[in-house]
Amino acid sequence: MTAAFTVSAEEAGARLTVDLGAIARNYRALAAMTHGAECAAVVKADAYGTGIETTAPALADAGARTFFVAHVSEARRLRAVVPAATIYVLNGLFAEALDIYARHDLRPVLGSREEIERFGAFCRTTGRRSPAAIHVDTGMNRLGLDMAEAALIAEPGPQALAFEPALLMSHLACADDPGHPLTARQIDRFAQVRALFPGIAGSLANSAGCTLPATHHDLARPGIALYGGRYRADREPLEAVVRLEAPLIRVRDVRAGDTVGYGATWTATRPSRIGIVSVGYADGYIRATSASDTRTGASVRVAGRACPLAGRVSMDLLAIDLTDAGAVKPGDPVTLIGDGIGVDDIAQPAGTIGYEVLTSLGRRYHRRYIQD
User: Fold this and answer.
1) Which residue is catalytic, options 44, 101, 355, 369?
2) Which of the following CATH numbers is that of domain 20-227: 3.20.20.70, 3.10.20.340, 3.20.20.10, 1.10.357.20?
3) Which of 145, 158, 162, 314 would give a disulfide with 120, using CB separation of 3.0 to 4.6 Å?
């Protein structure tokens, strides 16, 4: 199956390769960590930028039976390619889309009393006790019922609800930071709230939680680790999934003292060779990776050597200092992600995280899917 939107190799300024085999192996590695709990897959944000229509079937083939997305639109796309899967919509009940939940067999994650009442009323109208998840906040302070609200909902007993409470879940805030005290508090609070909802499956573990047995419960739901991003500060990522390559479109010589790019923020300190690549922030290569006279930006790899950026990343172009790369010429390949440069390596000089790099990858690339 091809991606929903494609650009030919002849038209594109760069090529993005997604290794579906690596995604499958990452899924199996995470499933093995969860010691018997079911392992779901989070495929929100277009499967973290890798393409939901292609990545989700690969995860299903690897064993995933339950999927999580953020929006109803993502769930509808997902249903078209994994027709037998259980699909949860994390961002709650989209009231204007109630019929879409029913039509496509989607499960909302209900995180407020208002959502619970509204979905219950809808189920009474349809005469069907449809399944949904109940989201309880244990410390994130974002979505979810607070502990007191959860107790009130549970008081009559889960069977009194007009819908089927198929899953009780919460979201870990700091599990990627080993030893953070909030994780232990959330584990304890979730155990307390599970006792209020006997017989309902529980889900607490995210990617980092897959390494913490106390968070496993019945269903783990990894995200970033599936796609090769760093999921714990003290562990190396699983297999790299994406590779981004582009050809040099121009190589030029500049004199010592010349500046490169918008704002003249980067000055050559020696006679230098500058390479230009047809990738910019409109393609998701974040502007904050830029280099200047006062800060080192991201690096790429050319002819086997690490080459730093030179100047600002612009909308459609970036410049590279090729001075130490040897004899290179227009048309030679540049690796922006891959060959030891991970999404987290791009994120670090930008002051962000690998999640943002992955989910920003643009649609102007020629996308290639492989099964290595």
Assistant:
1) 44
2) 3.20.20.10
3) 162
